[in-house]
C-alpha cells in the first residue's frame, strides 16, 4: 500500500467534503509514540459521512469488502491501494472519541491530521479483543505499551469506563499495577 499517496488523497477529500474523521489503528499508534507494522489504514468517521467516502473510494478503484452498521472495509483493486477500514461513529462513545481527537503529525511529520487520543485507542482495542479473542495477544501488547508511554497523563476514569463495559476492570487494575512497578 502506498500510504503517503492514499493519505494525501484522503486528507484532501476529507477537507473538501467536510468529512469528520480521526485516524485510529496501527497508524494512530505512531502518533501516540509507538511504532509497529501495519498494512492498512483505519479511520473513525461519522456514520452519515459514509456515502461520501464510499463514492470517493469507489471512484478511485476500491471495492467494499465488508459492510455492517458499524464498519465498512474497502479493498483496493490494485496492491498500491491497499485496504482502508472505517468505524462508523453513531453512538455516544464513538461520537465523543471524534470530539476528543487531537491533531498530530505522522510519517516523519509529512502529514498533520486528527488522531484518536491514547485512551480511545485503548478503548477500541479492549472492544476488539472482546469481539475477537484471537486479537488478544497483539492488542494487549499495544494497550500495555500505550499505558507505559502515557501513564502520567492518562484519564484513568475513562479507561475504567472502557474496561468495565466489557467486565474487565480487574484486568486494567492488573495492567496499571504492572506498569507502575516498572
Describe the largest sheet. Answer: 5 strands, mixed
Number of helices: 8
**Strands side by side in the biggest sheet:** 1-2-5-4-3
Name the structural class.
alpha+beta
Range of helix content: 40-55%
SSE order = HEHEHEEEHEEHHHH
Q: Architecture of the largest domain in CATH?
A: 2-Layer Sandwich
Determine Rg (CA atoms, Å).
16 Å
**Broad shape:** globular
What is the number of independent domains?
2
Strand content: 15-25%
What does this structure look like?
This protein is 51% helix and 22% strand. The protein folds into two domains: 1-116, 2-Layer Sandwich (Beta Polymerase, domain 2), CATH 3.30.460; 117-182. It is α+β, with helices and mostly antiparallel strands and 182 residues long. Strand 6 and strand 7 (111-115) form a beta hairpin. The protein has a five-stranded mixed β-sheet with strand order 1-2-5-4-3. It has a two-stranded antiparallel sheet with strand order 6-7.
Concise account of the structure shown:
By secondary structure, this protein is α+β, with helices and mostly antiparallel strands. The protein has helices at residues 3-16, 25-31, 50-60, 92-100, 118-131, 136-150, 156-165, 169-181; strands at 21-24, 40-46, 62-67, 71-76, 83-89, 102-106, 111-115. It contains 8 helices and 7 strands.
